[in-house]
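Why this split exists: single-chain examples teach little about how molecules sit against one another. For that reason, every record in the complexes split bundles all components of an assembly together and asks for one structure covering all of them. Below is a record exactly as it appears in the raw files.
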Amino acid sequence: MTAAGKADPGNFFEDFHVGQEIRHATPRTVTAGDAALYIGLTGSRFALHSSDEFARSLGYERAPIDDLLAFHIVFGKTVPDISLNAIANLGYADCRFGAPVYAGDTLSAGSTVIGLKENSNRETGVVYVRSIGTNQRGETVLDYVRWVMVRKRDSSAPVAAATVPDLPAAVTRNKLTLFAGIDLSRYDNVAAGSPYRWGDYAVGERIDHRDGMTIEESCHMTAARLYQNSARVHFNQHAEKAGRFGRRIVYGGHVISLARTLSFNGFGNAFHIAAINGGLHVGPSFAGDTIYAWSEVKEKAELAGRRDAGALRLRTVATKDRPCADFPDRGADAKPHSAIILDLDYWVLMPR
Amino acid sequence: MTAAGKADPGNFFEDFHVGQEIRHATPRTVTAGDAALYIGLTGSRFALHSSDEFARSLGYERAPIDDLLAFHIVFGKTVPDISLNAIANLGYADCRFGAPVYAGDTLSAGSTVIGLKENSNRETGVVYVRSIGTNQRGETVLDYVRWVMVRKRDSSAPVAAATVPDLPAAVTRNKLTLFAGIDLSRYDNVAAGSPYRWGDYAVGERIDHRDGMTIEESCHMTAARLYQNSARVHFNQHAEKAGRFGRRIVYGGHVISLARTLSFNGFGNAFHIAAINGGLHVGPSFAGDTIYAWSEVKEKAELAGRRDAGALRLRTVATKDRPCADFPDRGADAKPHSAIILDLDYWVLMPR
Amino acid sequence: MTAAGKADPGNFFEDFHVGQEIRHATPRTVTAGDAALYIGLTGSRFALHSSDEFARSLGYERAPIDDLLAFHIVFGKTVPDISLNAIANLGYADCRFGAPVYAGDTLSAGSTVIGLKENSNRETGVVYVRSIGTNQRGETVLDYVRWVMVRKRDSSAPVAAATVPDLPAAVTRNKLTLFAGIDLSRYDNVAAGSPYRWGDYAVGERIDHRDGMTIEESCHMTAARLYQNSARVHFNQHAEKAGRFGRRIVYGGHVISLARTLSFNGFGNAFHIAAINGGLHVGPSFAGDTIYAWSEVKEKAELAGRRDAGALRLRTVATKDRPCADFPDRGADAKPHSAIILDLDYWVLMPR
């Protein structure tokens, strides 16, 4: 036992095995306080999450919690077990949002290890987990896969043969749904802040979201703490000044939230994220960075049995300190422009 | 269409016409979370907004939301339509607070253009709007005029002849009211934190509020985001470093909130702002500034039919990095002392 | 009367007398918003305060407010009367937590002066107060003694002979209780995040809490403002740059909260602080400091009539910019290691 004694050292790569099921700690009752602070940290303006009245006009009980706030809270619970000793959060796949989350709901999370692959240096390995967030009734609110590079405690420790899960490149259209009871016939463009509905977007269309948001240490740390994300790299300047980057690293989810918030300017009616097909944190972000974003419409899908809503598959690219009027992208060699820090592929729902 | 495509470029001066009615986006259900964050950002100690019990003792349903929090939320909604391309927020007039706002109420906002005046340089013009905030029952919670200098998209664009509205120098006494059902007979000075009631103040009396509050980037940005105020100058250091001031500008309303909070020390029983007669952002404020304030009693007014409450017309002057023990003011030439950043004229209600 | 006029100058040492009873201003209805912001500022992960479901499984009505959030709110109310002219917050003793505080409860505070002792320089003196926080039903939620060094207005003012209260070195075991109706038989280690129960800890055991949290100006100011703590030294950089330290001083209670939050890593099942025996702010803390902590189990106590819960007396030591793997402590001469800023002695309750 180290000096830390009962303090949790977190799991190392060799502590995981495929099929392992982990119930995560710290159930969280989400409240109006969380929703307010989320708006305070992002500036989000999507009407569904801002107004009980707007939400009720669509058949919701009241304003549901922002999809990404639910994501971050569930994600945060997985950190102590999965990624306390992680070097990098590599990617997300097959992420689907389920039941809406309302203030008063209590979220819990569990994960199953679905893949393990040691790196050739034997110092680290990639852990693939499927994590599921549930509410107090056991309904799934979120279901996603992420993979993360985790340190080995002991590089000489033997590990099982590699298992790499077969992951879909995107959540298929037929898995996209809208909750029972939702009816967009009374959807109010003016209240929502955009005249553009599903039918107004074309595949291939690109939109520069124009605005920029500068990140402060206090803002990204408060966000990560709100999500009870305990990854050390976000909070400890004393340790990080001797680390890889010399400073605290912004929780990648905060960048996703900022990109989504910026995307309001162009997709104000994208009231719900139905799924995240994949997300890549192309580069780290730090306090002082100003986040910009642009998006491209990759696909359009109808929703089975519905005439009032449709889905857009978006790719949102976020940069730091680099406006996006000319859509900075990957080059011919697929290498991303040096300013890009996030490349997110997801499905949003819009009224038709 | 620019690269921004469907992203909202905001209105330019030539896009407005007198009589134009604009319904603003993003209805907002105000919550206990907003109230808590407002206290966290300002430190406000007015008992009415802090305690349900205190509020009930006066006949309120429960603690209403701080008047200025309601103001900022309504103001924030007007930004995308009115002042996204503004250079300066010039002034406020004839601002009256209506029905109290409680957690759970949903606020919406609309504006009417009541004046337009192109500047002689033809690059900009002044837009006058009357904005009204309403709750979910359609009751007015706030009604005010502001004017703002807005860029023209095209300096050669023709515009209509100037229309400048006739605005009152102050909200007249007979418009000052207290909501039905309020009864101050059980008002508790000790709980409120001040022994001084309406009768204890004299016209001409000046009070230095003593305390100072330093503004941090994270605090003013979180405040503006909480209000869903999307004015770019508050958030984007990357763009602002090449701007007029080389840095982000603090939302002027945050300075008003700080000045009001500081004024607790001297006006602890000024439980309600009934009206704002006029407000001038004399100078910009930036992170790092420490805000001080002093106030002068300009008028005293009885409230029609009430013996339990009276109104004080206050002028509160806020400075930056300059204590106010000697009441820094305008000079003989009416030019404000260089440290002054806010000059606010408003009516507060106090128990008698 | 000074320029400040009706602005409150606060009490000076010669304004106090033993036996004086003070009812403090600013009753506060604690809300889910306060709880959310507290999590956002500390990252606290104790399940009892995070989850209504977890709390109900133990017999609570729903998730109670974090013990220290209640402490800070009560403490904040005492500042304008007790410590506005304080130079240093010297210590705490005999602090017991009473009825749980739920969102919706309204907290008020009062203090009795129980001791006064002028310092030999006659410029300052020590004021001892017993402060009690009550809810809207008059139930005690917190009862504690603190002593603080307060300036004299006039060093030549005569003062009464010294009275120093007899204070217990620790809250005795027989005063430790668990609220009626609480039953830990369904306590869920996994949800709580720790496998270690009361029986697993040994007297003398020391635990390094490993993590570090860097303090930002915006975070500690927002915390102190949330608690409506109006002590000037936390907020005013313009004044403090000419002060003792050249910068704002972090509210000591924020350091206590961070230490408690860090202690989750090792004491995840310490679901309730029952009492604080003593606390010493060994040194000041400033923005930029990274807080680390370690703890030692000083005593173990059974709770009268209960088999499901026990008490641990902990000593938690917090440092700045100094990891605690080797337990930096007081030397043979009892002088604390130079990195130590907090030395806290308290009782926590744990499931057996």
